[in-house]
Amino acid sequence: MTCPFCDLPLQRIVRRSQGCIAFAADAYPVSRGHTLVIPERHVESFFETSAEEKGSLFRLLEWCRHDLLVRCNPAGFNIGINDGKAAGQTVMHLHIHLIPRYTGDKPDPRGGVRWILRAELDRMFSEVRMLHDAETSRHVAAWSYEQVERAGGLVWVGSERFEHLGREWRSRFGTAT
């Protein structure tokens, strides 16, 4: 399997510096300006990077923060690494999320990253509930989380985005297909 981060199109790269790359998250940005920072060397885990790579990653992260403050004027940031499949890592190339946060983007932001997962889950299910099951044409608007899970996180055919959503569901929640 090829790594999507090892062969990034040049137009996605925001900055390249000291063996690291910053690029705009395009598939599922959490907010305006959501940026990913990666080492150019393919490593899966933050703990596989050298001290020099860690320093370069954090310097580039700081540069991106400054750039986003100028361009997007966020009120804060969430910084996150999903390290390993059990932690939710779906692309097995280390990547650090820099997520700009804006005043009012969440009614009560207390808890920070502890609640991002739930917010993403809610977003994902609001999309899933609006789709139809392609095989039986049953409307899934009333399906609960458990019903979707029992259905195996089936792919609701009709768009690449939702095919990816099905794969993402299975990889995150371990549902067999």
Task: Tell me about this structure.
By secondary structure, the protein is of the alpha+beta class. The chain has two domains: 10-101, HIT family, subunit A, CATH 3.30.428; 112-172, no CATH class. It is built from four helices and five strands; from the N terminus they run βββαββααα. It has helices spanning 51-72, 116-128, 145-150, 160-173; strands spanning 13-17, 20-24, 35-39, 76-80, 96-101. A hairpin with a 2-residue loop joins strand 1 (13-17) and strand 2.
Kindly summarize this structure in a few lines.
Helix content is 31%, strand content 15%. The protein has 4 helices and 5 strands; from the N terminus they run βββαββααα.
CATH architecture of the largest domain: 2-Layer Sandwich
Mean pLDDT: 76
Helix content estimate: 25-40%
Question: How would you name the CATH homologous superfamily of the largest domain?
Answer: HIT-like
Report the C-alpha radius of gyration, rounded.
Answer: 18 Å
Note the run of SSEs as H and E. EEEHEEHHH
CATH T-level fold name of the largest domain: HIT family, subunit A
Percent of residues in beta strands?
5-15%
Structural class: alpha+beta
Alpha-carbon distance between the two ends:
20 Å
| Poorly predicted segments | 132-143, 145-150, 152-164
Shape: globular
Note the total helix count.
Answer: 4
The domain count comes to 2
The major β-sheet equals: 5 strands, antiparallel
What topology, given as strand order, has the largest sheet?
A: 1-2-3-5-4
Q: Quick one: how many beta strands? A: 5
CATH class of the largest domain: Alpha Beta
